[in-house]
Amino acid sequence: DFGRSSELAFVVEPSDDIAVQEQPLVLYCQVEGIQPITITWRKNGVMIVDSENAFMLANGSLYVSRFQRVRGDGSSDEGEYDCMAQNHYGLLVSRKAKIQAATMSDFHIHPQNAVVEEGGVARFQCQIHGLPEPVILWHKNSMPVNTDNERYTLLPKGVLQITGLKAEDSGIFHCVATNIANVKFSREARLTVSGSHSTVYKDPMILVGPENLTLTVHQTAVLECIATGNPRPIVSWSRLDGRPIGVEGIQVLGTGNLMISDLTVQHSGIYVCAANKPGTRVRRTAQGSLVVQAPAEFVQHPQSISRPVGTTAIFTCVAQGEPPPQITWLRNGQILETSDHIKLKNNNSTLSIYGINQADEAIYQCLAENSAGSTQASARLTVLWADGLPSPPQGVRAETVSATTIQVSWEKPLQNTKEIIGYVLHIRKAADPVEMEYQEAVSKSTFQQLVTDLEPSTSYSFYIKAYTSRGASKASEVTVVSTLGEVPAMPSLFIKVINSTTVQATWEPSIKLGQHEGFKLYYRKVHLSQYTGPVLLASNITAYNITHLDASVVYEVKLLAYNQHGDGNSTVRFVSLRETVERTAVLNPPCDCMKDEQNNKTSTTGIIIGIHIGVTCIIFCILFLMFGYRGRLLMCKNVQEQLSTPQIPRSQRSATGLVLNGATRRDRDERDLNGKQLDMNELERLFPASPSQEQQKGITLAHSPSTPHDETQISTLPLDEFSIIEEQPDPLPKNPHGSSTAAPAPDHGPANEG
């Protein structure tokens, strides 16, 4: 159980610094952990030996008595320094501290004379390089400029802006640059304010826009924008990507300069300065980019772990920064080299150590570095080893059984075998990484294992470990053996008859066939023992035509795939061409051209006559149905002339008979008008025949029993007086009043007057 205080770790690491020429320099390094701890220093990767100029203090810090940028021998105290700490458990390396000499160059931009009209804008600039960044102040007439005047704006990069110029602003200006290395003065420049404020209209114009800046988080950015015009333009800022600039840490300097304090990565972007004429859409724009970098910092630190021998140790180290940092791993201060059992994944964020042993016990460090800075984190791997564990299993052998099976055998360890509870066989393709390894458990009384489901023609590595309740033994020696090659599988075969002498064999090569060099095709007549073939076909061919066959016999076709290990199983198909020949004879009989022509003519004439007869029958059926329902089936020939009242004197005729006749005529007329059909039932109802007269085959018309006459004369009509006619209905004339009237019955002859 290792607590944090027992871990070797840095409490204070050296930091970047700027040293002054001929001045002393101290680089701090403080470490905690289990003693004894040894601290050493390196510069640019080379060990520093104590000397009169540079030596280590008792607290582990490095002291440089007189820092020099360039020494007499050409060496320099500038460079990258790091501190190393080591104890019994491992070695640590601190972050790299960049040490530079303080310098200051001459001014490469001096202020220039300017003549500006009253009410205008004046701008002076001077630039100088130095380490650290020089502080630039402005003097007017040899006196510091009054920064309390809101019309005067001093920008960090050596710019002086004066707005709303007045005559009192005229004078001589120069700047003073100061840092720990030196103090320097620029040349002087005269400002002349001329005339009175002009009222002439001038379009807005941006004199100076923002420049591109690259800064680090927590610094301050100043984006300059100075505009002129009449009337005075309004200056506004926006981001090109449309995101809001925000308000926190944002300040406007002077009449339009944008200052962003305590920069973050989110402040990166392109900023647009716009000069707008008041009350109009007239505007001028300028833009500049701001890049904010962030030093590397850890999101997840690696954690110290303890693992038994033979297991896997995994360290995770996740860092962020802008630009994204590069991650490097160290083992006891040296760059970690990957191997079969040491792997780096996920852009070096994950370190995996497979099958650990005592040699892997060390301190592992994760270094994250980008252009803005570097950082480090460490973790210790402790390999657990219990006394009395078995020694490695002996005599590991592997023998190939088949293309997919290998038998592995071994002998029990030489020492400490009483507590063994079983063995574990570790299996891996020789070409695969260690993380692809898998295991099979074996009982303690078993000293061989049949490994199945392997791939043909593939090399495999095997080793054994003996396990107890307190841990595992060291791994046995590794043995490597290859499986046998495998012949291809059976191809799918299809036979298609092309004609009476040709068939086509087609097949579909499958991935399951395995590696195959080609195909062999055989065929024969089934009653023969000898095959024709083999026909050797390349592996990319999938069809072959077998020609010059005998249509009267059945053929056997056989196909197989082969490779360097031999021939695979064959696929057999049988095919007969006899049915094809017979079917061809039926479908294509011998041609008698003259007879066929006559038969064709006769057949055509018969078809035309049959069509005409069928159409005629259909027309007659339709006409019969149409007129049959509308015409009368039976009509009495001369019914009006034959049917009359009984034979009585004219003078004695009663009105009853007239009424009867009139009623009969009206009934008929009404039936005609209503389009009713007279069928046999109606005739029987109207003219019932008496039983005595049925022998005479006549029809008797009797008066209604309600007639007042006591004597009734009966007229008998023989059947030959009737005939069946079809009556065509006449259109009914309209009366003058528009109502229908019944047409008078036609006079077919004199009525019988008795």
Task: Give unreliable regions as ranges.
Answer: 632-754
What's the total count of β strands? Answer: 58
CATH first level of the largest domain: which class?
Mainly Beta
Task: Report the major sheet.
Answer: 6 strands, mixed
Mean pLDDT: 80
CATH architecture assignment of the largest domain: Sandwich
Using only C-alpha atoms, the radius of gyration works out to 61 Å
**Count of domain modules:** 5
Q: What overall geometry do the principal axes of the alpha carbons give?
A: flat
What share of residues are in beta strands? 35-45%
Estimate percent helicity. 10-25%
Q: Can you tell me the CATH topology of the largest domain?
A: Immunoglobulin-like
